[in-house]
Amino acid sequence: MNELTTLERRALSRLTTPGGGMLIVAADQRNSMKKVMTDDPQTVDRAGLAAAKSDLVRHLGNRAPAILLDPETALPEIVDDGVIAPETGLVVALDASGFAETDEGLRRTRYIDGMSPRRVRELGGDAVKMLFYLRPDRGDAEEEVVTAIRDLVTAANDEGVLLIVEILTYRLPGESEEDYAAAFGGLIEDATRICVEQGVKVLKIPYPGSAEASDAVHAAAQGVPWAVLSAGVDHATFVGQVRTAVRHGSAGAMAGRSLWKDCLSTSADEREERLTGVAAVRAAELAAVIDEELAAR
């Protein structure tokens, strides 16, 4: 197991429920968040998106252990303006929107300009999150990604900042949906193993697909905490996925659109009503499920 330092343990404790489960509201989305706010995303400018994120923190994030935000539209204003509660943990995303693609159809994420683990500390973050796309079955062709993960682990360690690595797999050009679905659990397992080998101490990954696949991922994690992401599924589906994942080794969840995708609009009054009456209730249910399953292990 990649042991957490005292600083990292303290940071991780700020991201957890009373029962010790990880629960982070993911609100670092940019383009996808605009799409759920209006039928015409181009009408949502930076100020409009920033206002929605402030409301999301105020009415949802502050009711959860922690929230994940981006420094392009949300920070440092949400900290400087006192929107985020002192007791709410803050995770800061490093990854820019979208991805580049190689000639072979492999995906590459990019850093937001000027962002680093040191900058996350300056923004008041408790932890840093970086997304990497990875197809572990492509061997040497993915060495660039593996090296980038290893380098970021070193940079975060040097700064004493807790790093959460998010891994996403994806269909390759010409790969059928059926072939990708059949390979999915194994891809997540192998990606987990690769990350642990590079020194990653906390992981954010898609639900592996089943109890058996979750067991395999947990074995590959070798004691490293892993949280499942919601990937845009509906709340009821995600609750079921989290229950299974935690029962089979996961430390918790990082939930985004499953909590708030139908609770944001361009109207601040409507946002408040939906976030407090719907999204916050969902977050409380998710926290209860995580703690219940952890207690039963």
Q: Number of helical runs?
A: 11
Kindly state the number of beta strands: 10
Percent of residues in β-strands: 5-15%
Contiguous uncertain segments of 5+ residues: none
The largest beta-sheet arranges its strands as: 1-2-3-6-7-8-9-10
What is the highest CATH level, the class?
Alpha Beta
Secondary-structure blueprint of this entry?
Layout: H1 6-13, E1 22-26, H2 31-37, H3 46-59, E2 66-69, H4 77-80, E3 89-93, E4 100-101, E5 107-108, H5 117-122, E6 127-133, H6 143-159, E7 162-168, H7 177-197, E8 203-206, H8 211-221, E9 226-229, H9 235-247, E10 252-255, H10 257-260, H11 268-296
Parallel strand pairs: 1-2, 1-10, 2-3, 3-6, 6-7, 7-8, 8-9, 9-10
Antiparallel strand pairs: 4-5
Helix pairs in contact: 3-11, 7-8, 9-11
Q: What's the short story on this structure?
A:
It is built from 11 helices and 10 strands. By secondary structure, it is an alpha/beta fold. It has one domain (6-296): Aldolase class I (TIM Barrel).
Structural commentary:
The structure is a single chain. This protein has 297 residues and is α/β, with parallel strands linked by helices. It contains eleven helices and ten strands. Helix 4 links the parallel strand 2 (66-69) and strand 3. The protein is globular and about 50 Å long. The two termini are 20 Å apart.
